[in-house]
Amino acid sequence: MTPLLEVQDLHVWFEDAAGNEIAAVRGVDLEIDAADRVGLVGESGCGKSTTILAIMGLLPSNATVAGRVLLDGEEILAGGDRTIRPHRWRDIAMVFQGAMNAFNPVRPIGVQIADAVQIRGGRTRKEAAERARELLELVGIPRERAGGFPHQFSGGMRQRAAIALALACEPRILLADEPTTALDVMVQAQIMLLLEHLCSEQGLALLLVSHDLSLVLDLCPRMNVMYAGEIIERGPSDALADTPTHPYTRLMFAATPDIFDESPLASIPGAPPSLDREIVGCPFQPRCDRAFERCVNETPVLKHSQEEQEAACHLNDLGRKASPDSSPANRTTGVRNGAA
């Protein structure tokens, strides 16, 4: 079956003020089926937000995009704004990371949602205003609050309103960029329950970008792990949590609090590589506790590591696991955390 949304070999470069190219996204492939829920996780700066902004065609003018984005098998990115605009908000909508910044501060929330319904949905002003009130009720905001301004809403209510705005034109795919950022734990749970309800009741497909692995595990059956602009492991979320085959995935879960596990939290030393220069070898090698000589010189490719998992790691070619041990590879090369 043809996926609802398919991203093929997506690359994004930015040109800085000095004329240097920054390779923010490097060969990303993604697939989302109808009513599917997929997670995209990784540290800040690994290219998650850039990926979904590229899918929406919302990157700034200093960005160059290569690759293909297909909706129902039809290429929608090749013609730039001309080909993506008819699908933006109607087929693919986005919940932006900062809900406060997603709204005009001097116009009522309901009016801004109604604008989207009227302009992109082709309804009259009266119909659009009523639809805006319906959408606010759908996300748990009383319809009488439609006349309120963004600063009069709490953080959780603004996030709900941002979701209502994304649903204005009844899209089939929702791209949610850190929808629980800066919210307390109880409000985070409410937003996640709302997204789950919307996906179940309306058949929405969801691509959820988040730093919070526990949220993605609860909501998304499939997960993609991103590092240095590329997907380095993907598969069923439970499988990635239980048997990660890339050291980065294993360390991320080891650094995530678990109320059922009293083991001390791990940390990942160092920082992701700078993307303004060529990366030689495995991009995670300088921080990896399982790196060996091949990792320094040869870039791994994404391939099957378990029955339903794929990982870009040379350990899989050796039949070794991502967990640390006293393997000959570590003892002979002495490569650990980037020191050789």
Biggest sheet strand line-up: 6-7-8-3-9-10-12-11
Distance between the termini: 47 Å
Q: Count of DSSP E strands?
A: 12
Using only C-alpha atoms, the radius of gyration works out to: 21 Å
The major β-sheet equals: 8 strands, mixed
- Apparent shape: globular
Name the structural class. Answer: alpha/beta
Order of helical and strand elements: EEEHEEHEHHHEHEHEEHHHEEH
Low-confidence stretches: 326-340
Q: What percent strand?
A: 15-25%
Q: Into which percent range does the helicity of residues fall?
A: 25-40%
Count every helix, treating DSSP H or I runs of 4 or more residues as helices: 11
Summed over residues and divided by their number, the pLDDT gives a mean of 89
What can you tell me about this protein's structure?
Helix content is 30%, strand content 21%. By secondary structure, the protein is of the alpha/beta class. A hairpin with a 5-residue loop joins strand 11 (303-304) and strand 12. Helix 4 packs across helix 5 (155-166).
